[in-house]
Description:
Blueprint: E1 2-9, H1 13-25, E2 31-34, H2 43-46, H3 58-61, H4 77-90, E3 97-98, E4 102-109, E5 114-121, E6 124-135, E7 159-161, E8 176-180, H5 184-193, E9 199-204, E10 210-213, H6 218-226, H7 229-253, H8 255-270, H9 276-279, E11 292-295, H10 298-305, E12 308-312, E13 315-318, E14 322-325, E15 330-332, E16 335-338, E17 351-354, E18 357-358, E19 366-367, E20 371-372, E21 378-380, H11 389-410, E22 415-417, E23 428-430, H12 438-441, E24 449-451, H13 462-471, E25 479-481, H14 488-504
Parallel strand pairs: 1-2, 1-6, 2-3, 4-17, 6-21, 7-16, 8-9, 8-16, 9-12, 10-11
Antiparallel strand pairs: 4-5, 5-6, 13-14, 14-15, 17-18, 19-20, 22-25, 23-24
Helix pairs in contact: 1-11, 5-10, 6-7, 7-8, 11-13
Amino acid sequence: MEKYDVVIVGAGISGIGSAYHLMDKCPGKTYTILEGRHALGGTWDLFRYPGIRSDSDMHTLGFNFKPWKEAKSIADGPAILKYLNETAAENDIVSRIRFNHWVKGADWSSTDQQWTVVAESGGEEVQFVCNFLMMCSGYYNYEQGYTPEFAGLQDFQGTLIHPQHWPEDLDYSGKQVVVIGSGATAMTLVPAMSEKAAKVTMLQRSPTYVASRPDQDKIANLLRKLLPERWAYAITRWKNTRMQDVIYKRTRTQPEKVKRHLLGLVRKALGPDYDVEKHFTPRYNPWDQRLCLIPNDDLFDAIKSGKTEVVTEEIDRVTAEGVLLKTGEVLPADILITATGLNLLLLGGAQFSVDGAAIHFPDHVTYKGMMYNDMPNFIQTFGYINASWTLRADLTSEYACRVINRMDELGVKQATPRLRAEDQNMQLGPWIDDFSAGYMQRVMHLFPKQGDRDPWRNTQDFHLDKKLIRNAPLEDGALQFGAPAEGAAADASETRESLQTRSAA
Length: 505
């Protein structure tokens, strides 16, 4: 049983960033990273479909400590993976990663003040002991993407693919391709495949808001020529986070105005004869679901070339030769791609317990969007739905380091969020609020709750989080340092029972 000060689970963006911050701010601490797959990179190593790219700019998706140096700010998957591998190599993080170690669960011992982490490797169970546990396993199921139940899917005689499991040897040259979906994956695949395929049809039940922007940030590239690298990166990062914040908040306060602007840009790109109302006008307001970013008008150009068509209709059933619509039309397909989304998976599906008592997360409240009441020395990284993931990941790992260092200063080995007396009857809400996307709504009942006041909110607001996480004092009456006082276990049990009752109600 190997023992470390900190165990990090996951070697994607969050895990690599956490390792850097830990070495930088807590240099005396030992750590290891447990990664279930054979390689680092997480999302950016797993997904291999044509055109794979980020829909966030790399000046905010990149780490705050490593400037993005490439000209393209909307980067493709291989460029992002190269950036992650560089980061890990430059900081001697790769040697700390235990590949093919899939974490199955962990138990906290109040007596020993440590976590015992159980992983599977090579068909065998292995255990690691640590004082502090950082979960950086992402938010979706790596084993299986989401595919709705389409009638007749088993009858299809062509090649059926979910983008999460793209076959490396697929040749789609001259093929008829139908992509079912209207999200970021579909809008990436369609223009990329249209270069070789005979025709690519994007079949959607309902539209998504789309915004096009150049894949290069001219201001960022100019600043890099005029200023030291880190200054240029910091200024660009500040500029882009402010822009993201302004745009998102405007969708909350002036949704109709933002909607008119977005649709006006689509009409300008596709021309007056295109049916923007049918194919690019959602039934919801902007940012009620995630806005799709396309670089350099690539989707619009593919549509105008005639090699891509957007069809907005209901599916009746899948047939041997393609897709039958409820209108009676048949879309022929040699290749059918279900770009229908992800299955969210809390904490990689691992099971957790405290002193042998299983943790049922819906009965817990999040502390600052990263810890949970009555779970000691435990931090989860979960990014933003309305901004770049890494903005939140950097804040989370910085905060973890503050907590670890504060425990050392106080000479204690435990830090636990606990509901204060004034928090006991606060209003509870879902982990993510005001976001209607299906992939979230399908599993939100399995996630922890958030409260109606700080520090129990999951704000999804980067600029507010900087104040709550980076600048606010650690001792706030809710985060308690040291072993629990006598009677605290009973109080925690009463709190859990109260939360269980309210969750059921």
